[in-house]
Design goal:
It is built from 18 helices and 21 strands. By secondary structure, it is of the alpha+beta class. It folds into four domains: about 35-105, Roll (SH3 type barrels); about 110-135 and about 325-445, no CATH class; about 185-310, no CATH class; about 480-615, Type 1 dockerin domain, CATH 1.10.1330. The chain has a five-stranded antiparallel sheet, with no helix packed on it. A five-stranded mixed sheet has the order 17-18-21-20-19, covered by helices on one side. A four-stranded mixed sheet has the order 13-14-16-15, covered by helices on one side. A hairpin with a 2-residue loop joins β17 (about 490) and β18 (about 495). α4 packs across α9 (about 330-335), α10 crosses α11 and α16 (about 565-575) runs antiparallel to α18. The chain is globular. The relative contact order is 0.10.
Length: about 625
């Protein structure tokens, strides 16, 4: 009996040790994966921005960490992870990697080889990356101004089109109205900015009319005061409350200056020129197809929540979480008149049932999912909705679907095809080197045929005018900060520093995707690749953002530091010249602010003698 107890004890000890070892290896293995959080992130051959680019990674891509230790190197604040991706080993800047113990959580069940997989996987992406991250309204997905969200304000935005939230809200309103859902107890979150002007009228259609000045419900008025709604919001909310007494409203204090936010949103938004020529900024900066940077007035109009506090547009502020009040018939009404009005030929399921179940599975409003897909796909099948064969950057793909255009980054050569590539993550190649999903795709669409899902829905907004801009494909833009990081440039207000003296334009271009910007001389002429980057040189991005280069010590703007610069420094101290802008900043070789003095002159002289090099950071 005693021996039996010993044997039993040994077995239990062994079992505990076995479980401990298994758990240890599971935890180690689970911690060796990471999710990419930026677009256009470079996989490099070494931990620095001077090394070869092996591949480009985008939001949602999963990498395997070869080492958990961050390597020191240039061009990355946090340090570099050594990773493996698509059979390539290299280094990725840790600023754009989130470690995860659940790789599959971030693969979103890719590859998306059928409409159902794409609808469900995309709902997972939208839920986890946006709705659960604090961007839980259509407005916040476009204008991320939530101070308590996961991502920094004015970043990580799902779409480029300024009018997209309005378009989505209108379609949702029509569906709710047709199905008697407007009487439900809906909840809305309305952003509020600091220093908001009295009004922000549309540049063509003018100021919004309506609202209710008279106070009729004192209890409701008290709640508005408790929420700290400004007076300029109240007349619109009173009018809504009178018709829809079950609706509730919360104020979101963004703590952002309105005009400063307009300036930031202008650089990450677009407007369709054909539908509103007067909305396009005079700079005529083209972002994609018929889409251009908008005027300040246009950006302010779409950013101002007060312009959309009417029943047919306020739904852009509705909470997008799932609610059992949504029925499949409601979803079906959104899809009426499109190729999604019925069954798909691959899964043999109705599109309305797939959106409904995807919403329930991932806690997303299914009516919103259907509206978003209609907006992205249009009414006819195209590249992302047919599974047709495409070729992109020398690789062929067939049988992949992407119903929300996720991954269709505007920085890509062809955003629609880039979305298909995003959907193909994890797919396999056949003997011909073709990435194969559901071979042949939708049998009703010939290979290479189909429409263009990038075409906006033909149904245009009805208020305040039928000619109000329609909606382009949802795209995320690569942040300007990513390009600057790749080139190891430091941003100081409107200046860029950290330039090695003598660096050529070609050298900087080789470190990143140079199609997104141009280098220009201080007088406006373009800079060739063999020319030096100098104080006063400018870099202008397609988004409209522009910076001026500062090479500390280069006071003459020739890209070198020599006796001519020493002379210019002396002249500044004697009051014979008056340096301004980038040239004044370049003279701060010792002092960091205020007037130039003898300490700056001494440091410049020491640099020329080789005794104390000027810091360019």
């Amino acid at each position: 009996m005693e021996n039996l107890k010993k044997v039993t004890c040994y077995i239990m000890v062994f079992y505990i040790l076995f479980l401990s070892i298994v758990c240890y290896f599971i935890s180690v293995n689970a911690a060796t994966n990471g999710r990419i959080t930026g677009s256009g992130v470079r996989l490099r051959s070494a931990p620095n921005t001077d090394s070869q680019v092996l591949d480009l990674l985008n939001v949602g891509n999963v990498v395997t960490l070869i080492s958990m230790d961050l390597k020191k190197g240039s061009g990355c604040t946090k340090g570099w992870y050594q990773v493996s991706y698509n059979g390539k080993n290299g280094y990725v800047c840790g600023d754009f990697v989130t470690l995860t113990s659940e790789t599959e959580q971030y693969s979103y069940n890719r590859p998306w080889t059928s409409p159902k997989k794409a609808i469900f996987g995309g709902a997972d992406f939208i839920s986890s990356d946006y709705i659960a991250a604090g961007q839980n309204t259509s407005y916040l997905k476009k204008f991320n101004v939530n101070p308590n969200g996961k991502y920094s304000q004015n970043t990580h935005q799902y779409m480029a089109n300024l009018a997209a939230p309005f378009s989505e809200a209108k379609k949702t309103y029509e569906s709710y109205k047709a199905n008697g859902l407007l009487s439900l107890p809906l909840h809305f979150t309305l952003p509020i900015f600091n220093n908001m002007p009295a009004t922000n009228p549309h540049p063509v259609y003018g100021e919004e009319k309506g609202g209710l000045d008279q106070v009729k419900d004192k209890a409701f008025e008290k709640e508005l005061d408790n929420q700290k709604f400004p007076e300029s919001y109240k007349k619109w909310l009173r009018a809504l409350h009178e018709v829809y007494p079950n609706w509730t409203f919360s104020a979101m204090q963004t703590n952002l200056d309105f005009n400063a936010t307009v300036a930031k949103q202008k650089l990450v938004g677009s407007i369709q020129q054909s539908s509103c020529p007067k909305c396009v900024d005079p700079s005529n900066i083209n972002t994609e197809g018929n889409w251009y940077i908008a005027t300040n007035e246009t950006v302010a109009y779409y950013l101002d929540p007060r312009n959309f506090l009417e029943d047919n547009s306020v739904l852009m502020f509705e909470d997008l979480s799932f609610n059992e009040v949504y029925k499949e018939e409601t979803v079906k009404s959104v899809l009426k008149g499109t190729f999604m009005d019925g069954k798909d030929n691959v899964d043999n399921l109705t599109y309305s049932s797939m959106f409904m179940e995807a919403g329930r599975a991932y806690n997303v409003n299914p009516v919103y999912l259907a509206s978003l897909s209609r907006q992205e796909m249009g009414t006819q099948k195209g590249i992302a909705s047919s599974g047709q064969q495409i070729e992109y950057k020398g690789i062929t793909y067939v049988g992949f679907y992407n119903f929300y255009n996720i991954g269709a980054y505007s920085s890509e050569e062809n955003p629609a095809k880039a979305g298909v590539v995003f959907a193909a993550l994890g797919g396999t190649r056949n003997s011909d080197g073709v990435f194969v999903g559901n071979v042949g795709g939708d049998p009703s669409i010939p290979v290479g045929g189909g429409g263009n899902q990038s075409k906006p829905d033909d149904n245009k907004p009805s208020v305040p005018s039928e000619d109000k801009p329609s909606t382009p494909p949802s795209t995320e833009t690569t942040p300007v900060s990513s390009y600057l990081a790749n080139m190891s440039l430091n941003k100081k207000g409107s200046f860029l520093t950290n330039i090695v003296v003598g660096t050529t334009v070609g050298t900087l271009k080789s470190k990143t995707d140079s199609s997104a910007f141009t280098f220009n001389k201080s007088n406006g002429g373009s800079l060739g690749d063999s020319e030096k980057v100098a104080t006063g040189s400018k870099i202008k991005f397609k988004s409209g953002e522009e910076f001026t280069i500062v090479v500390y010590g280069d006071l003459t703007g020739d890209g070198e530091i020599d006796s001519a610069d020493l002379l210019r420094m002396r002249q500044q101290l004697l009051g014979k010249v008056n340096l301004t802008g980038a040239y004044l900043e370049a003279a701060h070789v010792y002092t960091t602010s205020g007037k130039i003095d003898s300490a700056d002159l001494l440091r410049l002289r020491q640099h020329l003698l080789g005794k104390n090099k000027i810091n360019q950071a």
